[in-house]
Amino acid sequence: IDNRSLIISIAAMVFLPLTFLTGLYGMNVKGLPYAEEPWAFDAIAGACVLIAVGVVAYFAMRHWFKR
After folding, report:
1. What is the pLDDT of residue 2?
2. pLDDT tens digits, 39-64
3. How far, CA to CA in Å, does 32 sit from each of 37, 63, 67?
4. Which CATH architecture has domain 3-66?
5. Where are the chain's structural domains?
């Protein structure tokens, strides 16, 4: 696998769960968990940051950035 494909794959793995979460909570439907809570935006934003940091940390521990 060449370096460009590796970088694109890593970027996709970082942004895929973030896109899912923001897309899910971006819909204007009732019944989403915690959608009416005042702290929901902060919780979703924090979850997105934690997921992104976790995925990047996983790839860093596997030494994917040095290939």
Report:
1. 80
2. 988 988 898 899 889 988 988 888 87
3. 11, 38, 41
4. Up-down Bundle (1.20)
5. 3-66
- Inter-residue contact 54 to 62 (CB < 8 Å): no
Q: Residue 63: how many CB atoms within 10 A of its CB? A: 8
Q: Which structure tokens are listed for 5?
A: 């494909």
Cβ-Cβ contacts under 8 Å for 36 (sequence gap 6 or more): none
Interior CA angle at 36 toward 31 and 40, to 5°? 110
Question: Does this model's pTM top 0.85?
Answer: no
Q: What percent of the chain has pLDDT over 70?
A: 97
| Gyration radius of the chain's alpha carbons | 15
